Every structure is written in C-alpha cells, then in structure tokens.
Amino acid sequence: MPTPDSTWHDAGPADQVPPGAVIEAVVGDRIVAIANVEGRLHAIDGICAHQGGPIGKGRLSGCTVTCPWHGWQYDVATGRQTLSQTIRQASFAVKVQSDRILVSLEPPG
Ligand code: FES
C-alpha cells in the first residue's frame, strides 16, 4: 500500500502484532523487529548484535525481547541490550495509520 509520505514504510497490517507479540518485518532495506507492548508499538533493528539472530522471532516479555538463538535480551523501547551499557540496536519511529504499521528508517530528528 503506498504511503503519502516516503519517510514511512509500510510494514504490514496492524493486527499481525497484537499486545505481547513481536514480529520480524522487512522494512525498506532493513530487517526490523516490531513489538507491541500493552498496545504501544516499538521497532528496533531486527538483526541481533551478537551473531545476527532474528530478534523479531524471539519472545517478548514486557518491554524485553529475547533473541531466539542465544538469549541476548533487548529493551524494545530503546534498543539497549539489557546487560550492556554500550550495545544498542537502532530504534525506529513506528505508527499505525489506516490499520497499517508504518515505520520510519530515518534517524530521529
Ligand atoms: S545471535 Fe542473538 S543472542 Fe546470539
């Protein structure tokens, strides 16, 4: 579905990410993990900083997603790896419009 603003990329129907779920989506040229925490969507880089595991195929508990490969955990609101001060996944603006998830890959301005 085309979007009126090219900054925003369509990442699929909003109902594919119910509260408590995390999914993997291809957004532009990125793989993104999109999580729904109590009705609020968050989007972070979906390729794990450890060895490239699929974060979007992990398990979400509260605000924390666990990579399915070796268990690294990230805060989906910030992209921070929970045990490190320095490891941080890129995070992206995300919104729902007309029942579609839209993700911006632009750095926050
Ligand atoms: S690849 Fe994600 S924890 Fe190892």
UniProtKB/TrEMBL annotation:
Keyword Cell cycle recorded: no
GO MF entries: 2 iron, 2 sulfur cluster binding; dioxygenase activity; metal ion binding
Rieske domain segment(s): 8-103
InterPro entries from the UniProt entry: Rieske_2Fe-2S (IPR017941), Rieske_2Fe-2S_sf (IPR036922)
Keywords from the named record: 2Fe-2S, Dioxygenase, Iron, Iron-sulfur, Metal-binding, Oxidoreductase
Record has Iron-sulfur as a keyword: yes
PANTHER family in alphabetical order: 3-PHENYLPROPIONATE_CINNAMIC ACID DIOXYGENASE FERREDOXIN SUBUNIT, FERREDOXIN-RELATED
The name this protein goes by in its record: Naphthalene 1,2-dioxygenase/salicylate 5-hydroxylase systems, ferredoxin component
Species: Posidoniimonas corsicana
Native organism taxonomy: Bacteria, Pseudomonadati, Planctomycetota, Planctomycetia, Pirellulales
Gene: nagAb_2
